[in-house]
């Protein structure tokens, strides 16, 4: 196939994937909407919450790593399903959403690959390409772990983010495939940008998990104070378990980001621009992102900062990452912007 | 919660939050504790992140001085205020330096004591089981017929699972994951190394740029640079004595398609000598392929056009001849520049205007529509003035001081002329003529020397290694205890998670399962 054919295929497949992600998102939104209507009896929820968060003494133990935490979570949701009519439809919506996400991912992957074939290089030489690649990374990180860590509860957030990024990319950032400007001719481009994209995917998952953590933690506090909780919130894993998921994803992303931003980036900048660090806006914001996540890890190790504060920092880190990617390219000019929007 | 956490606060003053009542030493100690506490580290990290931001939004003198002066003109009130705050050079401002120096001190103050604590912890044996194992997560119990050598079996099983095991009376204690704290310490110490490397480079290094017209040469000495930024303690005498000549420069642009005009390839052919008596060598300099010479690196940063012009004065004498580098103003290389002929007589002459590599005339006047030289033209205006005595003051070669000059006029209009290569125009009033002989290209080279980069790089790589240990190693303890209860022999197993991952997963259950006598597997009682 010729470069034009590949470009053509890519231009067809990426918008299609976007639409399917949007459908998946609607399915997950329906799942949530169905759950909001179903209010679970106080006593049951309270039992759930107590089991999930344990008493004071065993906090660390009951809601535990991967398998154990998902055990608690699925046990919770299983009992909820059995007890509450209406949740079968939620389950179905959730499954449809996940299936659509798999389908969209396959097309998305094909779109990114054909884009690379069309351009004859790695598909992240400008902002359009970086958007489709980074959102692919988000979807990939989610789909790789969705079964293992029971991440279905992230479906709405993930499909929302991926569909939004892809939609924005196709509508506002589209650039036809073409070769690179000379400064981007370097295998460090491959290393630097793929590290950034994968850790960006993980930052996104960690950010979404932290948002849901805050929501669920609030609901749990309300329940302990005698309130109720809707079925959609109840179906989420315990706040502790989500906090653990966020930590694990971010702990995976942080060393990778460190490598991408503080090793591969500077080495490449040294070759291309003759200095390894020049306080270019993109460099500054990458460093800020790094420092914020370092603060997150410190916060988790500091009494009084664990939990809510740490989650807030993780969300700030995610915003900083997004701003670095979108805002800096569009608002501030610097060395990095010459790759073309 | 866990002891790992306690170590953080213990040496760094979890108990020292109240200011002491007496004594200078007490105060100093209290301040040191505050500075090296985890909360301070957090605050300083946030300050560092916040402090770095303005430098990316406000123009910075070291990056783009022209933008800074534009900003100062545009904001006459705000500008000087920003300037006082150091906002035009954030990363060298006193307040930014204060943040990272404090962080650096805090870092040292934090990890050095932890090293001692860790060295003790590594040698320590796993501690005795707590009295009430059933309060611990994952607690399991089962009965066995008799104690026998059960504890020996437990020891073997735990060792097999790579725990460090210590036998106590009626119990074994086991611990693993010591590498986590080692990783954490390695990370923080390597960060210090990396920062030292960075500091070294910025103190002892230098960076200079020079614009060389193709065919010309450059010898590495301070006087030859257009722009030179030494590190704070750089000594200008020891520049390596290399010299080079730019033999040729080749550039390719995208000819068609949506990215028409985008650069595709730059190549400069150099010949160079490492020392004045060294043999001549050649090198093809490209973006991403710097030339490394004796600790310095030479980079290709940019390129442009230098029209070759001959100016004759009113007396018919050649007053200027040669290439004059023009600076590109847009992506199609409309290049602005000046030609000065201060020695022209009876009047001195000066010209300014544009070199257009692919000139077309549209409603805005002549512009370049492509970066390559498809239809080169020189569009200029001229000035004359009384000869001035040499002042010896340095003058920019890219700007014409028009304060003592008058613009030529022709038929009542300001003079403007457009030349193709080879063409000549005569100036009004027999003031002379100017000939556009042709044009050369120039390249902008950067020479830099940054010592300490290997230290910085090695430091960061070690830091990542440590980080992985610190984030992925899971420190935890397991205890197995046998005791007699109502005449039965009861085994209790429990664990303690000492990392932030929360939880031990299925490990305790798995250990229990492998310790249970076969037929007995079902009699386990699990405590919720
Ligand atoms: C340049 C600044 C710093 C950066 C980028 C940084 C980064 C990090 C990172 C990424 C971690 C996570 C590793 C883990 O969870 O074990 C960490 C942990 C830690 N940091 Fe820092 N750090 C910095 C400065 C400091 C300072 C000044 C202190 C002392 C107050 C400190 C004390 C600690 C401690 C005690 C831990 C271990 C937490 C635990 O055991 O979970 N760090 N640091």
TrEMBL record, chain A:
<dbReference type="GO" id="GO:0017004">
    <property type="term" value="P:cytochrome complex assembly"/>
</dbReference>
<protein>
    <submittedName>
        <fullName>C-type cytochrome biogenesis protein CcsB</fullName>
    </submittedName>
</protein>
<feature type="region of interest" description="Disordered">
    <location>
        <begin position="59"/>
        <end position="80"/>
    </location>
</feature>
<dbReference type="InterPro" id="IPR017562">
    <property type="entry name" value="Cyt_c_biogenesis_CcsA"/>
</dbReference>
<feature type="transmembrane region" description="Helical">
    <location>
        <begin position="153"/>
        <end position="175"/>
    </location>
</feature>
<feature type="transmembrane region" description="Helical">
    <location>
        <begin position="187"/>
        <end position="215"/>
    </location>
</feature>
<feature type="transmembrane region" description="Helical">
    <location>
        <begin position="130"/>
        <end position="146"/>
    </location>
</feature>
<feature type="transmembrane region" description="Helical">
    <location>
        <begin position="249"/>
        <end position="269"/>
    </location>
</feature>
<keyword id="KW-0472">Membrane</keyword>
<feature type="transmembrane region" description="Helical">
    <location>
        <begin position="6"/>
        <end position="26"/>
    </location>
</feature>
<dbReference type="InterPro" id="IPR045062">
    <property type="entry name" value="Cyt_c_biogenesis_CcsA/CcmC"/>
</dbReference>
<dbReference type="InterPro" id="IPR002541">
    <property type="entry name" value="Cyt_c_assembly"/>
</dbReference>
<dbReference type="GO" id="GO:0020037">
    <property type="term" value="F:heme binding"/>
</dbReference>
<feature type="transmembrane region" description="Helical">
    <location>
        <begin position="310"/>
        <end position="332"/>
    </location>
</feature>
<dbReference type="GO" id="GO:0005886">
    <property type="term" value="C:plasma membrane"/>
</dbReference>
<keyword id="KW-0812">Transmembrane</keyword>
<keyword id="KW-1133">Transmembrane helix</keyword>
<keyword id="KW-0201">Cytochrome c-type biogenesis</keyword>
<feature type="domain" description="Cytochrome c assembly protein">
    <location>
        <begin position="124"/>
        <end position="336"/>
    </location>
</feature>
<feature type="transmembrane region" description="Helical">
    <location>
        <begin position="96"/>
        <end position="118"/>
    </location>
</feature>
<dbReference type="Pfam" id="PF01578">
    <property type="entry name" value="Cytochrom_C_asm"/>
</dbReference>
<feature type="transmembrane region" description="Helical">
    <location>
        <begin position="284"/>
        <end position="303"/>
    </location>
</feature>
TrEMBL record, chain B:
<dbReference type="GO" id="GO:0016020">
    <property type="term" value="C:membrane"/>
</dbReference>
<keyword id="KW-1133">Transmembrane helix</keyword>
<dbReference type="GO" id="GO:0017004">
    <property type="term" value="P:cytochrome complex assembly"/>
</dbReference>
<feature type="transmembrane region" description="Helical">
    <location>
        <begin position="185"/>
        <end position="206"/>
    </location>
</feature>
<dbReference type="Pfam" id="PF05140">
    <property type="entry name" value="ResB"/>
</dbReference>
<keyword id="KW-0201">Cytochrome c-type biogenesis</keyword>
<feature type="transmembrane region" description="Helical">
    <location>
        <begin position="41"/>
        <end position="58"/>
    </location>
</feature>
<feature type="transmembrane region" description="Helical">
    <location>
        <begin position="95"/>
        <end position="119"/>
    </location>
</feature>
<keyword id="KW-0472">Membrane</keyword>
<dbReference type="InterPro" id="IPR007816">
    <property type="entry name" value="ResB-like_domain"/>
</dbReference>
<feature type="domain" description="ResB-like">
    <location>
        <begin position="38"/>
        <end position="508"/>
    </location>
</feature>
<dbReference type="InterPro" id="IPR023494">
    <property type="entry name" value="Cyt_c_bgen_Ccs1/CcsB/ResB"/>
</dbReference>
<keyword id="KW-0812">Transmembrane</keyword>
<feature type="region of interest" description="Disordered">
    <location>
        <begin position="500"/>
        <end position="528"/>
    </location>
</feature>
<protein>
    <submittedName>
        <fullName>Cytochrome c biogenesis protein ResB</fullName>
    </submittedName>
</protein>
<feature type="transmembrane region" description="Helical">
    <location>
        <begin position="455"/>
        <end position="473"/>
    </location>
</feature>
